[in-house]
Design a protein that fits this description.
Layout lengths: L9 H29 L3 H21 L13 H12 L23 H11 L17 H14 L25 H7 L24 H4 L9 H5 L17 H12 L3 H13 L4 H15 L2
Helix pairs in contact: 1-2, 1-10, 2-3, 2-5, 9-11, 10-11
């Protein structure tokens, strides 16, 4: 029998689930938020900003005992109010101008105001052109700060450092709760940030090339078709990837349903919304164990 994905401490399992289903997707949203803002695609900035903040708030809540299955939906103001109550003096509550940022760029604003603007302009209706949007010079810097601080809090505050999984970076904190790490290391990220890498010149210097490069339908000129395509776009061996949800299901099928697996699956279903079909399938596999 192979080593099972469920054969880890419960808190470690929770941390992995939060990483796979919230933090990693939030990191991708964060990347596209900044990309959109930098290139002036403002509607996409607000939509991806909402997605980023929503996922990071949910990760922090679910790792500290709050289920995020259906109650909150996309409402980051409601999520933040729960975050504020739960995290107490460690909650993210204010925005501060970075010391290296010019004062004339920064516009004083409460965190509540920023969250309201992200919630309004990043609402799902924005995908259909139903909403107006407005921008301030300091929006990106405030969003950066908020995302950074929320991401730092994607850990169980009262989990004990080194107890559920090792982290050599924090060896001096072993035996102490993570809330102490957050307090004493204000710039420390619990989780590594992984972002896309590669040349930004793959399509040339003009942003419109995104639409026209290697596009035989929206043909503009031969140069667009003659560009050397990067391996990320045209690889010899096509890429693929399995969702972590599928890997969990595969593990149950290959290694069998153990009491430990049931405990972890029960926590997952009680706390994270994974889709009705997947939920029913995991429930079926666990129920079959009791019928043996």
């Amino acid at each position: 029998m192979k080593t099972s994905m469920f054969d880890i401490p419960l808190n470690h399992f929770k941390s992995v689930m939060a990483q796979k289903f919230f933090v990693a997707p939030a990191d991708r949203n964060y990347f596209f938020s900044r990309l959109s803002k930098i290139y002036g695609i403002h509607e996409e900035f607000w939509w991806n900003a909402l997605q980023t903040i929503e996922k990071l708030l949910k990760a922090g809540l679910v790792l500290n005992g709050v289920s995020v299955t259906r109650h909150f939906k996309h409402d980051i103001e409601k999520l933040w109010r729960t975050h504020s109550e739960l995290f107490g003096n460690l909650a993210v509550r204010e925005l501060r101008r970075p010391s290296k940022l010019s004062e004339w760029i920064w516009r004083d604003e409460s965190l509540e105001s920023l969250l309201h603007r992200i919630n309004s302009m990043g609402h799902p209706d924005s995908r259909y052109g139903l909403l107006s949007h407005s921008n301030h010079r300091s929006d990106l810097f405030k969003f950066d700060q908020l995302a950074f601080e929320l991401r730092r809090r994607t850990i169980g505050l009262d989990w004990i450092v080194g107890e559920d999984f090792p982290d050599r970076r924090l060896s001096k904190f072993y035996g102490q709760p993570y809330r102490k790490v957050l307090t004493e290391l204000p710039e420390f990220q619990i989780r590594s940030l992984h972002v896309p890498e590669g040349s930004v010149q793959a399509i040339g210097e003009n942003l419109s090339n995104v639409v026209h490069a290697w596009n035989y339908s929206y043909f503009r000129n031969e140069m667009d078709l003659d560009r050397l395509a990067p391996a990320t776009f045209f690889s010899v061996i096509p890429t693929a990837g399995n969702s972590y949800l599928y890997l969990l299901w595969r593990d149950l099928k290959d290694n069998g349903v153990t009491e430990q697996a049931i405990e972890r699956i029960t926590w997952l279903l009680d706390n994270i919304q994974i889709g009705r079909d997947a939920e029913l399938e995991l429930q079926r596999l666990c129920a079959a164990k009791f019928q043996e």
